């Protein structure tokens, strides 16, 4: 529900702040005062394209803001959460339009696109009147209203679920078909997996292979190095490290009697001697292990070359061959039963298609009954609204598609003839703006506001009518206001008297500049405004009495 609307430098309005409540709110005023500016402001706030002409003359920009209470708009609250624009259940729309034509928009203080404004606005406000931007002209909205009127929610959910299952199985079968010849693919996968499985590809095995290859390729150098080290440690010729160490120990041992502290040094030298002996033994063992084996080297080189060839073949680094093997094995496992899987999916798809057709048939039958009832109800209301003899029908047409449609197997079109003897035509092709507005009103009243949009705006729905018909229009709007918030711009007192709340738009000229003001009316001011609408220039006691009578009759007092 719209709770507040703020306008600044918008057309002829310098600044206006309006508060709205539930029920029916009427807006009246003299011709040219700017009654429809409130409707225009809501259009700009819900995604209409920017027009620099709406900026008040002499101002740099126009600013518009609206606040909504989302207690009656769960779809809008869900949209805000889905788009991460929610703010503790609040909803504020703001739009700035510059004099150079530029425009910016915000939702709950966050920058938003016009597409987002339009999507959210469509869940908050529905505008009816002499405008092209009317939701009821859209065939998708017509179908949604028909389903709401018929209370087809469970039937529609069943159709959507069945369509989702059918489409999902269809995609799986298409994925299998895109894989090409399954048998050929299986043979290729089996060969690749066998080729990779023949090799030890884990990280530890690859590291051991690389180390073994390095040892064998450098075996001669390793043997020579070990022999040289052994000669230095314990060689028979020259002074080896071990011999030098023993000589040093003997010399220091003779001196230890004169200097007791040398005992610690001798202990260290003894330990060093033991470690040298162990080092020599270790080198000797390694020396014995090394073997100049050309065949072994060739085997290791062949294996490394084979692994590098596999890596190039599969276009992965050597260390990723194991992951590639596992990936191919997974695909192989998945395709192993592809034939059986395709047959199973085909059977499941046939079942889903049958379930969808059954659900769509049930929905179609319910829609046919609802279409007949809605047509009769709207036609009767059209007669009350001054279009005697008018015809309204809801045409259902089968969808020409073999694919499952989540909205059902048919689409609908609202057909109308406002004049007797004329064939019904599509509502979107009705030429008269006034007739279109009243037909829209009749549809909404017949549906008792069953569509999800909480705020309905009717702009000049009373164009071309008067007298008793005007009072009926007002009564229908008031009845609709019991289900939804209704804003109505009117020039007829019979309609204005039916409102629960009343705003008057007036204009004045100051310093050669026209300004419009919007004023909330109390009971006394409402009588004066209705009297003005009834009596024109001269307002008499009789006219005021008539105004009071209209208000009393509307409120049931």
UniProtKB/TrEMBL annotation:
Species in which this protein is naturally found: Arenimonas donghaensis DSM 18148 = HO3-R19
Family membership: Belongs to the RecN family.
GO cellular component terms listed in the entry, alphabetical order: bacterial nucleoid
SUPFAM superfamilies documented for this protein: P-loop containing nucleoside triphosphate hydrolases
Gene3D superfamilies: P-loop containing nucleotide triphosphate hydrolases
Rad50/SbcC-type AAA domain: residues covered: 5-51
UniProt keywords, alphabetically: ATP-binding, DNA damage, DNA repair, Nucleotide-binding
Protein name: DNA repair protein RecN
A Gene Ontology biological process term: DNA recombination
Pfam families the record matches: AAA_23
Its biological purpose: May be involved in recombinational repair of damaged DNA.
GO MF term set: ATP binding; ATP hydrolysis activity
Phylogenetic placement of the source organism: Bacteria, Pseudomonadati, Pseudomonadota, Gammaproteobacteria, Lysobacterales
InterPro entries on file: DNA_recomb/repair_RecN, P-loop_NTPase, Rad50/SbcC_AAA
